Amino acid sequence: MAKAETRNIIKTTAYALFQEKGYEKTTMRELAATAGVGLGTIFQHFPDKPSLLIAAFEEELGGLVDQGLSTMPINLGLRDQLLYLMRPILTFYAQNHKLARVLIKEIFFLEGKAAERLQEIEMDVSQKLANLFVGAVQRGEIDPETDIADAVTALWAIYSLVLLYGLRANTLDVVDQLAWLGRLFDQQLRGLRPE
Q1: What is the pLDDT of residue 128?
Q2: pTM of structure
Q3: If you compute the radius of gyration of the chain from its CA atoms, what whole number of angstroms results?
């Protein structure tokens, strides 16, 4: 229990410092002093600063995806399943707007073990999304010839673009972002060719 509490204190303090001072200007020593723990204690939980960023995705956002999948109503079509999953994620970003900006800015150019871990997380989420697309094929919602990997990649691209535009504003409006995502998902699912 104490170990989990210490990890949470470190993580929460890091996120506050990242928002206040910026990711690059926050040092691990400063984090240790502000969190009230030893530098060695931080390194027991997080081997480096990038791993703190990945923890936000892995613990907070990964948990939101898993929770969304486990509570998703069974009668939803693919579009509504995707929006159901996106709502809590966008809400997390809206509630943690400054941190979200830091996270998004930094994760694109991570290197080393943190980048490898991020890729593992993305692959895990992509597989979960692919399962939704497979279900949509089985229900006859989308063409069975659909390349699922490409469809998931397109979904990521759409989501990333909408999130980036949302984070540019002073506040992220979840309702507006979901409406935009819905329109773009509709376009993706319909395609551009005439029937």
Answers
A1: 94
A2: 0.84
A3: 19
d(CA 189, CA 195): 13
- Domain-located, residue 56: yes
Q: Is 195 part of a structural domain of the chain?
A: no
pLDDT at res. 70: 93
- pLDDT at residue 163, as a whole number: 93
Co-location of 106 and 159 in the same domain = yes
Q: Whole domain around residue 147: which residue ranges? A: 48-190
Q: In this structure, are residues 67 and 88 in contact, taking their beta carbons and an 8 Å threshold?
A: yes
Helix/strand/coil for 189: helix
In angstroms, the CA 118 to CA 98 distance is 20
Q: Are 142 and 77 in the same domain?
A: yes
Half-sphere exposure of 177 (CA within 13 A, CB side): 28
Asked if 102 and 23 count as a contact pair (C-beta separation under 8 A), the reply is: yes
Closest CA relative to residue 162, chosen from 153, 151, 173: 173
Q: Report the largest interatomic distance among the alpha carbons of the chain, rounded to a whole angstrom.
A: 64
Specify the pLDDT at position 87: 95
Q: In one letter, which amino acid is 87?
A: R
Write the pLDDT tens digit of every residue in 127-182. Answer: 999 999 999 999 999 999 999 999 999 999 999 999 999 999 999 999 999 999 99
Contact 51, 110 (CB under 8 A): no
